[in-house]
């Protein structure tokens, strides 16, 4: 265990998230002994979500520790989610002695964890001997961070954790790996091909994804956008890479970009489900440039006319170095058209948020939240839910990179408290989590972790009494609540009383605004029950088109 802790310290890990028990309890104490912070959770999934947020905001792997069997599997859900989202994460789990697992002899918490993890993570390694720990830690680190980042599983068996070594012998095992995140420089002809296409476009656009946020290339993107005058559209977690209110922001006119642009340059974004079907239709004659680190991603949904495979910093630098060789031929009416359409849409949207509806709808509540959050642009916003997610993303402008963390590519629920904790611990900044009442339920108990560690996190629970809303009707003969119904009268603010945090119950936009402003200013744990109307919100928010079938009456 000492070797593991020192190996992690040596490679620069200063924080470990986790939940202890046999066989890793001492590991957490020892980690603290090396000067690492150990942030202890109530549920392993949330420890993993914290590590993922840590990875996203810092660009360095977030590390978390789990016990064997169920604890491992609870944590694995977030390591899998990290892999899908390209967040650098290392899950370290204790596991039982090998022999009785392999012989299926029914050992304590016996599970072949390595093989359970393998299909859902970027890489998985098992260590059976203390001597191998330093190498295993370096390999896990490299796997998490190099190329396309992802979730890595490191299985440490009980004998390896328990093994005692001579200190001088152990010291010899450590080494400092060289160039753990090597630059991947794009081919010069790929850069020219991309510049050629972009410069000839009449209606070009740049689509920024969370890969760009993670790669920390806001300086280069700003140069590229401002030098070329090409408008940009940010994906959800790329909001703020360039400020949402930038004159070249096309945030409000997504369908115009999709339908009319003739060349779209993807920067750290994938053409996955979030950019197809119900999310809009691309111009059939449009062409794509894709700046991407993973060559396998290219062409996966649409043909890419100009792939630029490399890390974003190298690729953008290479493009900027050559940009003056190209003459841009953008249609002079393209940007003014986008700006005019944006102005009209933004005015309409502003009017919608200004109506102080009571009981509150998502919109009237968000009008209040917007005023506070936009006055505090350095607050990191964590956001999950269905309508709460969609409407918050549309309402709250972001001005700084890596300040928005949400359900991301899998559109999962249950990332809230963990992500808020990881973001607060990794940055020291204040965090506001805007949560649907259902979404909050998945991770709510880890509000107590926010309180124990006295983190500057304000949790706002948008309570409309259910999944999607609180007016689900049972269609068939049952006296049970509808599957979507939760509790419109639940008082989520009482969590504050239970764990010693500031708590507020608000029923009007003005009350919400005052409570949120006070909570954020306090830089202390706080929870706000934001009472919405039960009929606020619709089934599946903006993605109802993904529901496989409408309800029909089958009562017999
Ligand atoms: P979004 O949902 O915002 O579109 P995705 O997570 O779908 O973002 O896509 C991010 C893309 O960015 C992934 O394909 C990933 O491989 C890529 N990526 C991540 N980090 C880098 C980097 N440093 N350089 C280049 N591409 C990167
Ligand atoms: Mg709800």
Summarize the entry for a quick read.
With 556 residues, the chain is α/β, with parallel strands linked by helices.
Task: Using brief descriptors, characterize the structure shown.
globular; single chain; 39% helix; six-stranded parallel β-sheet; alpha/beta; 556 residues; binds magnesium ion; binds adenosine-5'-diphosphate; 22 helices
Structural features, described:
This protein starts with a helix and ends in a 25-residue tail after the last strand. The protein is globular and about 75 Å long. Strand 5 (123-127), helix 7 (133-145) and strand 6 (151-157) form a beta-alpha-beta unit. The chain contains 22 helices and 17 strands. With 556 residues, the protein is an alpha/beta fold. The model has no long low-confidence stretch (mean pLDDT 96). The strands form three sheets. The protein has a six-stranded parallel sheet with strand order 2-1-3-4-6-5, sandwiched between helices. Strands 13-12-14-15-17-16 form a six-stranded parallel sheet, with helices on both faces. The structure holds adenosine-5'-diphosphate (ADP) and magnesium ion. Residues 436-438, 464, 466 line the site of magnesium ion.
Strands, helices and their partners?
Elements: H1 2-10, E1 15-18, H2 25-33, E2 37-40, H3 44-58, E3 62-66, H4 70-85, E4 89-95, H5 98-102, H6 113-117, E5 123-127, H7 133-145, E6 151-157, H8 158-162, H9 167-171, H10 188-200, E7 204-208, H11 210-215, H12 218-228, E8 232-234, H13 254-260, E9 263-267, E10 287-292, E11 306-309, H14 312-322, H15 334-354, H16 362-375, E12 380-384, H17 387-395, E13 404-406, H18 416-427, E14 431-436, H19 437-443, H20 447-452, E15 457-463, H21 494-499, E16 502-506, H22 509-522, E17 526-531
Parallel strand pairs: 1-2, 1-3, 3-4, 4-6, 5-6, 7-8, 7-9, 9-10, 10-11, 12-13, 12-14, 14-15, 15-17, 16-17
Helix pairs in contact: 1-7, 3-4, 3-18, 10-14, 12-14, 15-16, 16-17, 16-22
The structure holds adenosine-5'-diphosphate and magnesium ion.
């Amino acid at each position: 265990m000492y070797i593991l802790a020192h190996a992690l310290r040596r490679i620069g890990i200063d924080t470990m998230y986790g939940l202890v028990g046999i066989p890793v309890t001492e590991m957490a104490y020892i980690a603290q002994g090396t000067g690492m912070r150990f942030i202890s959770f109530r549920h392993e999934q949330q420890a993993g979500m914290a590590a993922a947020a840590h990875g996203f905001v810092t660009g360095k792997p977030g590390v978390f520790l789990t016990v064997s069997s169920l604890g491992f599997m609870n944590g694995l859900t977030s390591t899998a989610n990290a892999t899908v989202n390209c967040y650098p994460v290392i899950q370290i789990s204790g596991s039982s002695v090998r022999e009785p697992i392999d012989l299926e002899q029914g050992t304590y918490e016996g599970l072949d964890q390595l093989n359970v993890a393998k299909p859902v993570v970027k890489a998985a390694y098992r260590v059976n001997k203390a001597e191998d720990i330093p190498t295993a830690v370096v390999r896990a680190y490299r796997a998490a961070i190099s190329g396309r980042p992802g979730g890595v599983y490191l299985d440490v068996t009980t004998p390896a954790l328990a093994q005692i070594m001579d200190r001088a012998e152990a010291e010899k095992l450590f080494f400092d790996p060289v160039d753990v995140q090597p630059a991947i420089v794009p081919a010069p002809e790929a850069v020219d091909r991309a510049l050629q296409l972009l410069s000839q476009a009449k209606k070009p656009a740049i689509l920024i994804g969370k890969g760009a946020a993670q790669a920390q290339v806001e300086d280069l993107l700003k140069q590229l956008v401002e030098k070329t005058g090409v408008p940009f559209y940010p994906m959800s977690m790329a909001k703020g890479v360039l400020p949402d209110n930038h004159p070249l922001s096309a945030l409000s006119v997504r369908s115009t970009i999709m339908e009319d642009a003739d060349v779209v340059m993807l920067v750290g974004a994938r053409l996955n489900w979030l950019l197809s079907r119900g999310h809009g239709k691309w111009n059939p004659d449009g062409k794509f440039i894709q700046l991407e680190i993973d060559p396998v991603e290219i062409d996966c949904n649409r043909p890419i006319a100009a792939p630029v495979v490399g890390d974003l910093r190298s690729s953008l630098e290479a493009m900027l170095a050559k940009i003056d060789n190209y003459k841009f031929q953008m249609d002079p009416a393209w940007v003014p058209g986008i700006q005019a359409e944006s102005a009209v849409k933004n005015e309409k949207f502003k009017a919608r948020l200004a109506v102080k509806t009571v009981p509150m709808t998502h919109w009237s509540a968000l009008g209040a939240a917007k005023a506070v959050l936009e006055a505090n642009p350095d607050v990191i916003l964590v956001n999950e839910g269905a309508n709460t997610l969609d409407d918050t993303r549309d309402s709250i402008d972001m001005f700084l990179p890596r300040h928005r963390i949400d359900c991301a590519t899998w559109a999962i629920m249950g990332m809230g408290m963990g992500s808020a904790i990881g973001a607060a611990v990794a940055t020291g900044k204040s965090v506001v989590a805007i949560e649907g009442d259902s979404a909050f339920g998945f991770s709510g108990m880890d509000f107590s972790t926010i309180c124990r560690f006295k983190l500057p996190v304000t949790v706002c629970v948008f309570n409309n009494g259910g999944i999607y809303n609180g007016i689900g009707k049972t269609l068939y003969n049952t006296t049970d609540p509808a599957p979507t119904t939760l509790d419109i009268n639940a008082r989520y603010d009482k969590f504050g009383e239970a764990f010693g945090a500031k708590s507020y119950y608000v029923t009007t936009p003005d009350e919400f605004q005052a409570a949120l402003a006070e909570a954020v200013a306090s830089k202390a744990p706080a929870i706000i029950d934001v009472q919405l109307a039960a009929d606020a919100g619709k089934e599946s928010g903006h993605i109802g088109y993904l529901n496989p079938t409408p309800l029909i009456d089958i009562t017999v």
